[in-house]
Structures are given as C-alpha cells and as structure tokens.
Design goal:
The protein is α+β, with helices and mostly antiparallel strands. It is built from 13 helices and 16 strands. Strand 6 and strand 7 form a beta hairpin. The chain is flat.
Length: about 425
C-alpha cells in the first residue's frame, strides 16, 4: 500500500514540477539563457563535466554582455553542482539552470521515473520539459478494433482517455437470393468484397498501432467478422502478438469502445482506466447501500483522516486550493481547518473566523498549513495506512467524480 501511495505521490509531484518549470522563462522573456541538460542512463559524470566546460568556453564569445553573463551563471552553477555527483542515478538525470523572470538563479535536478535514452543540451528562453511530459503520459496504451462485415471502429485507450481514431465503412453487398451459377458468382463477389474490407481494416490498424507503443490489442464486434479478421491474419505479426482477446459488443463507434472496455476489464485489469472505474463504482455503490461508510468534501474527509477512519482516500487530480486553520487566542479549542480556493473565499473565511472568536471575546489567528491540498491529504492518508487513489482529469470518470463529490471522497473502515 505504501508503494502504491508513493507512486501516486511521485506522479503528482512530477506533474506539479512540470507545471512550475513551464512557467519559467528568461528574465527578458526571449533571451536564450536557460540551460537544460538531459543526461541518459549510464553517462559518466566526466562526460557532462567536459560538456559544461566546453559550453562555458563558447559562452565567453557571446556578444551581448547580459546574455553572456546569464548563460555563464547558469553553466557555472551546473559545473559546481556536478562535483557532488560521483555517479548519476540509474534512470539518468535532468538539470535545469538559469536566471528566470524573477531575476534570480534557479537550479533543479530531476531524477526521472523511467530511464532516459537520449542526450540533449539546450540553451533557450524556456526550460525543455518534453522528456518529463512524455514520461508522465501513461505508457498503458491499448488498441481497440471493433469490426462488422461492412463497418469498423479503430480506437485507443490511452491511460484513462478513450478516443475513436477512425471509423471505416465498406461496401459488402447483401446475399443474393437467386440460385444456380448466378448465386455462386454473387457469393464469390460478396466474399471478395468482405475480404477486401477486412484487409482495409488491417492496413489501417497496422498504420495506426505500429507507430504507437500499444501494450495490447482488443478485438471485438457483434458478429463473426472479428474471428474472421483474426484468423485471416490481416494484422501485422507484431500486432498479432499483442492481441489480448476477443470480446462481443453490440455497438461500434464511441459507444462500442466503452462497451468493449467494460467487457474486456479482465484483460486490462492492471490499467489505470479499470482501476479508476472500479474505485468510482465502489464509491457509488456504497453511497447507495451504506452511505455511512462514505465521506465527501474537505471537511468530512479531513475529519475522518484525523480520526484514522479512512480506508481509501480518493482525490481528483485537478483539485486545487490551500489549507488554512483558525484559532481563537487564549481559548481552549480544536483549530478549525478549511480548504480555500480563492482570495474571495479567504476573505469570507476571515469574516467567519472573526465572528466565531468574538463569541469568546478573543481575537482570531489564521495560519496557512499547506499550499497544496492534494499533498496535504495524501500525507495524512499515508500516516494512517490508507490507500490513495487519484482520479485523472482526462476521463469521464474524473468529471463525474468531480461533480458528485467535489473532487474529494473517502471510503471508511467503519462508520
């Protein structure tokens, strides 16, 4: 459980760091003075030290005095920090350094969650976060092919996002009612058109999925065409090796893709899509059968965390806000903690705090506990051994969860 929580926390922190880095720019907004060095797995420290030394020599020839000074400051900072590394981390390292729009030298060392395969040095007006963004993207991509005799849908499950990539239409004539040679000729024509359509679907699927690192492929549809498609070897051998199974769906198109994912949940049980859906379904089921085992909203969930009652903490990935607490000075009371998402809310909370403490003829004191609500709740959950599930923004489940539970809910161990 701790490992699951750590993975969720690490993923969230990386997402926030990328957002922070993307906001940074050169002090004037356009000078190429921010340095990014992407160091792949197994690179000797001496190799990067030599690279920085060479870039410092090159920077000395920059004509603009301000630009030269800023680039040299960034590189010198990297040069000094490299002395502390005897060996780079197993996954490699990404270094960001430069004087940003705030007018101060900023330095970041990021150990990526997966091994880096490329080496890159870049001096630009922005930091290069493309490698981290690619790593943040779910590498759990599943291809979906739904096929009928004259219609097909090629779709993709990317993390928790489901999309139709292509809808295909074919022209396969209906079976002919006449007998004799005419019937056999028409049957051959129909069979030829059918095979041509299956071939067309295979060609499109090959073109789409061979460019993606799909983890698996699901084949489905309402009739027998799905079996004919597989048995006819219309898919490239590299994709055939990734076929997870065949499922039956009533529909094609977007509705068919969702039906396919429901039918194939045992085939993709470890995917984030299935895990999120199961957590949400469990939450909704308990809300109907045993609402006393559900807490929702910040106040209820925070109270349950403080009491150690939370079994599963569920948070929307896009949840934002800061946590404040209020105390009435010289009054024996438990501090009141609140989630504040705007300056307007903070002002209203101050008015509420004043009224509350006026009853005790005391002055109020408001303190900021945490700048990040998600980290605050995750830390509390980890401390009591609760599992953490973060629901993604880019899924229909995320939207439903946000609307139904305001982005925060918990399944309790006991009422």
């Amino acid at each position: 459980m701790k490992q699951d929580n750590q993975e969720a926390a690490d993923r969230y922190k990386l997402k926030k760091l990328i957002e922070e880095l993307d906001k940074k720019s050169a002090i004037d907004g356009h000078s190429t003075t921010l340095v990014t060095i992407i160091i792949p797995t197994g690179t000797p420290v001496s190799e990067i030290s030599e690279l920085v030394r060479q870039e410092l020599a090159t920077a000395a020839r920059i004509k603009s005095r301000t630009t030269r000074k800023h680039v040299q400051a960034a590189l010198s900072s990297i040069q000094n920090r490299l002395k502390y590394w005897s060996k780079f981390p197993e996954n490699g390292l990404i270094i960001y350094s430069g004087i940003t729009q705030e007018g101060k030298l900023e330095y970041y060392e990021v150990i990526p969650p997966k091994p880096i395969r490329i080496k890159r040095y870049l001096c630009d007006s922005k930091f290069d976060t493309s490698v981290l963004k690619e790593m943040l993207r779910e590498d759990e991509k599943y291809g979906i092919i739904l096929i009928e005799r004259d219609e097909a849908t090629i779709g993709l499950l990317d993390g928790t996002h489901v999309e139709v990539i292509k809808n295909l239409q074919g022209f396969v004539p209906a079976k002919h009612g006449k007998g004799g040679q005419s019937q056999r000729r028409f049957e051959r024509l129909i069979e030829g058109a059918y095979k041509e359509f299956l071939k067309k679907v295979g060609e499109e699927a090959n073109k789409i999925f061979l460019e993606m690192n799909v983890k698996g492929i699901i084949i489905g549809g309402p009739g027998f065409a799905k079996e004919d498609f597989i048995n006819g070897n219309y898919l490239d051998y590299r994709l055939r090796e990734k076929i997870l199974g065949i499922i039956t769906t009533q529909y094609l198109g977007e509705e068919g893709l969702r039906e396919a994912l429901h039918e194939a949940k045992e085939l993709i049980r470890e995917s984030r899509y299935v895990k999120e859906r199961e957590v949400f379904e469990q939450l909704m089921s308990l809300a109907t059968r045993s609402p006393e085992l559900i807490a929702s909203g910040f106040n209820e969930v925070n109270k349950a965390l403080n009491e150690g009652k939370v079994d599963v903490l569920i948070i929307h990935e896009g949840l934002g806000g800061r946590v404040f607490k209020v105390l009435c000075e010289n009054v024996d009371m438990d501090p009141l903690e609140v989630l504040i998402t705007s300056e307007f809310e903070l002002k209203k909370f101050e008015e509420r705090a004043k009224k509350m403490c006026d009853k005790y003829q005391s002055s109020y004191k408001i303190e900021l506990i945490s700048e990040d609500i998600i980290e605050y709740l995750m830390n509390k959950a980890t401390n009591i051994g609760a599992r953490v599930e973060i629901i993604s923004e880019a899924s229909e489940i995320g939207e439903m969860f946000k609307n139904a539970f305001k982005g925060i809910a918990a399944i309790l161990r006991y009422a």
